[in-house]
Write a structure and sequence with these properties.
By secondary structure, the chain is an alpha+beta fold. 25% of the residues lie in helices and 38% in strands. This is Benzoyl-CoA thioesterase.
C-alpha cells in the first residue's frame, strides 16, 4: 500500500522566479513523513516524539530533481516503505503533478529511542506491523 497526500506549492516554497527552491522539496518530504505518521500509521507525530519518546531521524538521503515545480502547483506525494531493517527503514517519497514526476527522495530513517541521548533502537512488533502495511509491492 502507498501513502498518498496532496500539497499545494505556496509562495514560501519558491525563489523569486516562482520556482520551488530545492531545499523546500526536503521540507515538503518531511511534512509528508509527518502526515504519514498522523494519517497512515495512526500516531500524532508530536506525540510520537514527546510522549512515546520515539523518532525517525534521517541517516541517508538521495534526491533526484526531475522537473521544476512552480507556485500554485498541486502536487501528489506518494510514500512507500522499501525495506524495514532491525533499527532503520528505507522509504521513497515521490512528488508528481499528474503523470509528471517532479522529484523523488530516497531516505533511510532510524527508529530512535529519545529517552535520553537519542540512539537507534529495534523496531518493535507493533511498529513493524504498522510500517509493513506500506511496504512496496515487488
Amino acid at each position: 500500500m502507498e501513502f498518498v497526500c496532496k500539497k499545494s506549492i505556496r509562495f514560501h516554497h519558491c525563489d523569486p522566479a516562482g520556482i520551488v527552491f530545492y531545499p523546500q522539496c526536503l521540507v515538503l518530504c518531511n511534512e509528508v513523513v509527518e502526515d504519514w505518521f498522523d494519517e497512515g500509521i495512526g500516531i500524532d507525530f508530536y506525540k510520537l516524539h514527546a510522549e512515546i519518546r520515539r523518532g525517525v531521524p534521517m541517516r541517508h538521503l538521495e534526491v533526484d530533481f526531475i522537473a521544476p515545480s512552480m507556485h500554485g502547483d498541486d502536487l501528489t506525494f506518494t510514500l512507500v516503505v522499501n525495506r524495514i531493517g532491525n533499527t532503520s527503514m528505507d522509504i521513497t517519497t515521490t512528488a508528481a503533478m499528474g503523470d509528471e514526476v517532479r522529484f523523488r527522495a530516497k531516505q533511510t530513517v532510524v527508529w530512535a529511542d529519545l529517552g535520553g541521548a537519542p540512539r537507534a533502537t529495534p523496531i518493535e512488533g507493533e511498529w513493524r506491523e504498522r510500517f509493513s502495511r506500506f511496504l512496496a509491492q515487488s
